[in-house]
Amino acid sequence: xxxxxxxxxxxxxxxxxxxxxxxxxxxxxxxxxxxxxxxxxxxxxxxxxxxxxxxxxxxxxxxxxxxxxxxxxxxxxxxxxxxxxxxxxxxx
Length: 92
Prior knowledge:
Blueprint: E1 2-3, E2 8-9, E3 35-38, H1 45-53, E4 57-60, E5 69-74, E6 87-91
């Protein structure tokens, strides 16, 4: 995790290499209003929900076999410089 105000790491976790990536989320202390961008190896709804409870945000790429249903369609701001195709709340 990097604090963009200073470009210095605020979190580093070094494992023995035998630990699956998603388990590193157990070592991470989620910070309120922080954004976490992760690869699809980190899709674990229980762990991501803990981040949500800590009032932090996350973006993960979905696995090909992800099964979910949309429970709420959120409005996308077309004027935002970051292109968003959709913003939805989902449930597994």
